[in-house]
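Researcher: Please predict.
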Amino acid sequence: MPHAAHVASPAADRAPRPALNVGELSAAGLRAFAKIAEAWALSTDEQIRLLGSPGRSTFFKWKSAPQSARLGRDTLERLSLILGIYKALQILLPEPQAADGWIKRPNSAPPFGGRPALDRMLAGNVSDLVAVRQYLDAMRGGWA
């Protein structure tokens, strides 16, 4: 009797992935954001606007106790984009002062129209963060 070959299903080839815990993602994202905000010398108002304008009391709760934050999808998306912008700048401009100062320098590239990238990022829409991230990805030679 011929031996049948074992055919594994695609699901069997993947190790189980741990469930993403919103609390853990929120805390990690907020801790990273605090370090980026410090590196970029962002004011409290700028930080609040980048996070999607939560109330001031909510922002300060998040800041003092990130482990207890449960961020919504919009805020998590904003954090992800900001982390990506930060990382792209670190790759493009290996000198930390140049990378951290880039967002506040006037920029003649089309997405910025002579204004600093931070102005675009502070416009209030997630799409503005996406535009900055895509610009930097294109500068790195990645997808835009």
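Model: Residues 4-10 have pLDDT under 50 and may be disordered.
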